Q: What sequence folds into this?
């Protein structure tokens, strides 16, 4: 059975901290891995990863994929209260997208 | 503007009534999806469609039905057979291809069954 597992389920940090969110997967016909941010509404796209070892970066957020060990991490440096959200990981097979349960991040001022 | 629209944003229904959620996209995407999200949980796939007049069941299709008569539209009906329909429903679309496309999401419909 295809599955995507995210950890931790929730995280509370102080502003300025660095966080690492994990996503592991067991999906046949892997094509890409995607990260989304969800703030009490529809998810918004962050990154799509297809190749191992190549870091994608956008401001304070970065992500990398390891296709051998079947996982990805999402890093957020110098966290801000606006980073508080649920971060979703999804794996695409071309036909479907399999989502993890998400990591709920709360950043305290 | 290109995008996905869902209506209504909030919907209240009495138990035992069928209800249809609308989803329209003008992105010219072939694939469309319906997800359900419950508090503190990720997205669970209800149905998806990769081409007009064809659709596939997802993980939690029981109690739901869909149609895909037009490329732009993928309405979801929540039937009275759905035991716990109160949830946040998200519609999404993507390009059909080699899995190198992201999904674009609509704003969602929050359904409450009284």
A:
């Amino acid at each position: 059975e295809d599955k995507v597992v995210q950890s931790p389920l929730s995280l509370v940090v102080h502003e300025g901290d660095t966080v690492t969110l994990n996503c592991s997967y067991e999906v046949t016909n892997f094509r890409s891995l995607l990260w989304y941010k969800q703030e009490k509404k529809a998810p918004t796209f962050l990154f799509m990863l297809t190749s191992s070892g190549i870091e994608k970066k956008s401001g304070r957020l970065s992500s990398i994929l390891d296709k051998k060990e079947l996982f990805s991490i999402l890093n957020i440096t110098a966290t801000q209260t606006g980073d508080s959200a649920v971060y979703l990981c999804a794996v695409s097979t071309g036909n479907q997208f399999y989502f993890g349960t998400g990591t709920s991040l709360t950043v305290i001022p | 503007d290109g995008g996905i629209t869902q209506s209504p944003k909030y919907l209240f229904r009495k138990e035992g009534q069928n209800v249809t959620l609308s989803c329209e996209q003008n992105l010219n995407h072939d694939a469309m999806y319906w997800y359900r999200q419950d508090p503190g949980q990720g997205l669970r796939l209800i149905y998806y469609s990769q081409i007009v007049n064809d659709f596939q069941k997802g993980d939690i299709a029981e109690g739901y039905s869909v149609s895909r008569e037009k490329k732009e539209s993928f309405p979801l009906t929540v039937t009275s057979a759905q035991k716990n329909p109160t949830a946040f429903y998200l519609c999404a679309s993507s390009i059909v291809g080699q899995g190198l496309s992201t999904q674009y999401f609509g704003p969602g419909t929050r359904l409450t069954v009284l």
